[in-house]
Amino acid sequence: MSGTLTALAVLAVVAVGATLLGPRYDPVSGRARVSDGDSFRLGEERIRLLDIDAPEFDQTCTDASGADWPCGRAARDHMARLLASGVVSCVPHGHDRFGRLLANCEIGGRDLGREMVSAGLAIANGGYDHEEQQARRQRLGIWAGTFDAPRAWRDDHQDGLSPLKWLSDLFRPSQT
């Protein structure tokens, strides 16, 4: 019995050590090219912002008067303007299932995730709750009317989305 407890204690120490000493990712920076409202490219590296989810490029939302508007394109265009303002610096935290680097990124001290959520062009997804509440109160962007959450929209439009969607982003003209 004591051998089992010792083995469990050793495994626990190894697990904690692996977590603390797990993979570290070097910061990345440079000029970026927009993909959509929550992702972009730095060179050949695909980056996905942590803690936000922006409408998909082809997604539409409804404004306060009930008219459709291209909220996905608006999110992409806003991200393009942010990226055009300077050099992006990112602190990576891992990769998603599509191989994109998951990161918190900024330009000139401005957090890109915070900027997108504050503009009402992305929802908070594990962070930026205060900014989302302010955008809701001010009825900015997607909060001015109605919309499907980006995750729900992707699920409903799965036929039109490919796991290789990022490949089409390579050939879509950049607005930066």
Automatic annotation (TrEMBL):
Residues 33-145 form the TNase-like domain. It holds the Pfam family SNase. This is TNase-like domain-containing protein. It comes from Devosia geojensis. The lineage of its organism: Bacteria, Pseudomonadati, Pseudomonadota, Alphaproteobacteria, Hyphomicrobiales.
